[in-house]
Design brief:
It is an enzyme of class 1 (oxidoreductase). Keywords: Branched-chain amino acid catabolism, NAD, Oxidoreductase. The chain has about 300 residues and is an alpha/beta fold. It contains 12 helices and 9 strands. It has a 6-stranded parallel sheet with strand order 3-2-1-4-5-6, sandwiched between helices. Strands 7-8-9 form a 3-stranded mixed sheet. Helix 1 runs parallel beside helix 6. It binds nicotinamide-adenine-dinucleotide. Nicotinamide-adenine-dinucleotide binds next to helix 4 and helix 6.
């Protein structure tokens, strides 16, 4: 079984790396936060002191970082350190699962390809619950050979693997999805709040809408109203999950993309404005379903 260097052990990366261990992969792990490295080392991974250290001797690199600047620095290097493309062994497969701008994904992929590496942009959907249950959806961009090579590793962490197209296509498809997710989360929050304001039980209303024409992923898997579903961020003080600031990054990417292609995305623009206002009220590091509080009269 191959050895995977896992870089970025946050809300998503840690459970993904745990699943690789469960499926028999050897994992060499690095994060800037030493507690995260200690947590995965406690489950059988090798703790590493840098990304370069983690990638040494690995067959595959998987990165799960916040944004494009982190992915760029990891693979291409910056003023402080060399990038992995300058240090890893030939034939190392490189998979970036972070959600980043398509331009950076294409740039890194091109440099990797010119050096003879296979590089795949493979952002994910499914949230922390999907990461824990190994049911993530991977949305890949890259050449056919690279994506085929990535499948055995991705299958250990997810249940759906799509090939959206060439380099950067995974990122483009992912931001289309996340713009829609933001719109659905806002719409679900306002519909639930209006129901509550008029005396409906949010659990009963959720059950009704889930199986009616308003049904959507947020109602099925990620209800934003506290107490309706167990084990979702809304029922845990909106901790963990997918931070508002990361959703804002994705909404920013979607609006930049829309501007470049002259696409009309009024709902995405409105969702971005609502999440900006929510972040300004001190909610940047809370789960994005906390947008529910902007509509709810009852504060949690
Ligand atoms: P997070 O902030 O919880 O984790 C990111 C981790 O990367 C942190 O532990 C941080 O210390 C580490 N890191 C940052 N720079 C680093 C570097 N140079 N070297 C090593 N480690 C570094 O974020 P997350 O929620 O795990 O999200 C990761 C990515 O996945 C983001 O791009 C996000 O948009 C995307 N995503 C998140 C979710 C979700 O539900 N949380 C769902 C789908 C996609």
């Amino acid at each position: 079984m191959s050895t995977v260097a896992f870089i970025g052990l946050g809300n998503m990366g840690l459970p993904m790396a745990v699943n690789l261990l469960h499926k028999g992969f050897k994992v060499r792990a690095f994060d800037l936060v030493s507690e995260a490295v200690a947590a995965i080392a406690g489950k059988g991974a090798t703790a590493c002191h840098s990304a370069i250290d983690a990638a040494t001797g690995a067959d595959v690199v998987v990165s799960m970082l916040p944004a494009g600047k982190h992915t760029r620095a990891l693979y291409l290097g910056d003023n402080d350190s060399k990038g992995l493309l300058q240090t890893v062994a030939e034939a190392t497969l490189l998979i970036d699962c972070s959600t980043i701008d398509a331009a950076t994904a294409k740039e890194v992929s091109l440099v990797a390809e010119n050096k003879g590496f296979d590089f795949v942009d493979a952002p994910v959907s499914g949230g922390t619950a999907g990461a824990t249950a190994a049911t993530l959806t991977f949305i890949c961009g890259g050449n056919v050979t690279a994506v085929a090579r990535a499948k055995p590793v991705l299958s250990a962490m997810g249940s759906n693997i799509f090939h959206a197209g060439g380099p950067g296509s995974g990122q483009l498809a992912k931001i289309c999805n996340n713009m829609l997710l933001a719109v659905l989360m806002v719409g679900t929050s306002e519909a639930l709040s209006m129901g509550i304001d008029n005396g409906l039980d949010p659990k009963v209303l959720s059950d009704i809408m889930k199986l009616s024409s308003g049904g959507n992923w947020t109602l099925e898997k990620y209800n934003p109203c506290p107490g309706v579903m167990p084990d979702v961020p809304a029922s845990k003080g909106y901790q963990g999950g997918f931070m508002v600031e990361l959703m804002l990054k994705d909404l920013g990417l979607s609006q930049e993309t829309a501007l470049k292609s002259l696409s009309s995305t009024p709902m995405g623009a409105l969702a971005r404005a609502l999440f900006v206002s929510h972040a300004r009220n001190g909610n940047g590091r809370r789960d994005f379903s906390s947008i529910f509080e902007q509509f709810s009269k009852q504060k949690t």
